[in-house]
Amino acid sequence: MFTLSDIKAAHAKVKSGADFPTYVQDLISLGVLSYETFVVDGHSIYVGAGNYTQLDPATYAGLALSDSYTANAFHSALKAHQRGDTDYATFCADCANSGVYKWIMDLQALTCTYYDVNGNDVLMEKVPQ
């Protein structure tokens, strides 16, 4: 089974959103089936076979989340990150400012679903390969 050290080693290779497809493939090769990341402090829960989980604790101080979801701001921030224009910390701050609470990566379906502060799914996209 994968360890938190394995996940951190894969994540250390990511410099921008442009590196994300390779990161996803690295996680799949480790046996990660899905993960959930919370914008407020960056903690994530990684899930493998048999409900095996690894908790990655908070990675930064708590961000203040906007009370409402702003689609245009989030979509602009996401596209900028995917182009490689922003680092992970900037993307997380942009998510918080746009009212994005968390995202869930399904590595079997290769989808990423973003949720607002009210728990509504606001965007689901296919992960590029």
UniProtKB/TrEMBL annotation:
Taxonomic superkingdom: Bacteria
InterPro entries hit by this protein: DUF1398 (IPR009833), YdfO-like_sf (IPR036696)
Pfam families: DUF1398
SUPFAM superfamilies found in the cross-reference section: YdfO-like (SSF160419)
Name of the molecule in the record: Uncharacterized protein YbcV (DUF1398 family)
Organism expressing this protein natively: Sphingobacterium paludis
